[in-house]
Amino acid sequence: MSRFLNQCYQSLEAYTPGEQPRDMRYIKLNTNESPYPPAPSVVEAMTREQVELLRLYSDPTARTLKEKLAKLYDVEPENVFLSNGSDEVLNFAFMAFGGKEAVFPDISYGFYEVYGGLYGIDYEKIPLKADFSVDYRDYCGKGKLVVIANPNAPTGMSIPVWQIEQIVKSNPESVVLIDEAYVDFGGQTALPLIQKYDNLLVTRTFSKSRCLAGGRLGYAFADSRLIADLEKIKFSTNPYNINRLTLRLGEATVDAEDYYREKCREIIRTRNWTAEKLQELGFQVLPSQTNFLFAGTPKMDGMALYLELKNRGILVRHFGNPRIDRFNRITIGTPEQMAAFIDTVKEVLYEKL
């Protein structure tokens, strides 16, 4: 840290992304990326002509992609916001709607706390219940920015839409942000509620279910006035926030929706198989509606298992929070990758017993 850094940022704890090591080839089950490539039509959309057009700025309104998403989800283009990854929506939302206070679960996506610190927001972290679920009543009538990942990460668990509606309805003067990064893997979306409540913001990403983590493309749905607020922040910071190639890939991705729905179904089938195999090995596996599992075993410390798997060429994600340190988050890969993962876990446990 230099002596020039603004004092208000000197104590900021930055977000730590998942490992992207280059020292060897890994079965990479640590950052919730899709194990499948984009649809063939998406790959074909990346033509020489598209690359040559990089000499021109991208469309700052992203109108074509907004219209495609609006049609797909039965909303108006004015209800859609596009961003450089869904993290940018979260960034803008904390900036625009956080004011002085925010509230979110104590075990959830780590960026919520980072953005709270970045903007000097007095945030409250509400403990999950003993079973790691969210108690919706804890967020009713808070009168501050409410942020809930549904399904939650890293637990993979979700709450029903009727509970989300109670939270939104009980906080009429504050924005409620529902982060639906993983909703396509079995969760319930709160999207229809934006037609009823002007304080609901629903965020999504192309990184998980649409196999485009490297493309950095996120989006959000809300009342048109909330969207206008986010657009104001965007045009005051980086109007060309999405590059030309990513916009084109996004358009082609929406056109290939059937392909991605099938890949989600495949991941769900593999997730259920993996959960069953882990339970047979004595693991506690939380019920997941995501593309990952959160699992731990009394037979072995979570960090020790993480390190053993890494040494054998398999990456999973371990978190240092004492409450969850016996667990690891395991991204669902292909059936072949998950079979290799289960075999390796068996080897590790056999050697340690």
Task: Describe the protein.
- The protein has helices at 40-44, 48-52, 63-73, 86-97, 111-118, 161-169, 224-235, 244-255, 257-280, 302-311, 335-352, and strands at residues 27-28, 80-83, 101-105, 122-126, 145-149, 176-179, 200-205, 218-222, 284-285, 292-296, 314-315, 327-331.
- The chain has 353 residues and is of the alpha/beta class.
- Helix 6 (161-169) links the parallel strand 5 and strand 6 (176-179).
- Helix 4 crosses helix 5 and helix 9 runs parallel beside helix 11 (335-352).
- The model has no long low-confidence stretch (mean pLDDT 96).
Give a brief rundown of this model.
This protein is an alpha/beta fold and 353 residues long.
Distance between the termini: 45 Å
Weakly predicted, low-confidence segments = none
Q: What characterizes the major β-sheet?
A: 7 strands, mixed
Rg from Cα: 21 Å
- Give, in spatial order, the strands making up the sheet with the most strands: 2-8-7-6-5-3-4
Backbone shape:
globular
DSSP E strands, number = 12
How confident overall, as mean pLDDT?
96
How much helicity do the residues have? Answer: 25-40%
Strand content: 5-15%
SSE sequence, one letter per element: EHHHEHEHEEHEEEHHHEEHEEH
- The secondary structure category is alpha/beta
Q: Please, how many helices?
A: 11
Helices, strands, pairings?
Blueprint: E1 27-28, H1 40-44, H2 48-52, H3 63-73, E2 80-83, H4 86-97, E3 101-105, H5 111-118, E4 122-126, E5 145-149, H6 161-169, E6 176-179, E7 200-205, E8 218-222, H7 224-235, H8 244-255, H9 257-280, E9 284-285, E10 292-296, H10 302-311, E11 314-315, E12 327-331, H11 335-352
Helix pairs in contact: 3-8, 4-5, 4-7, 9-11
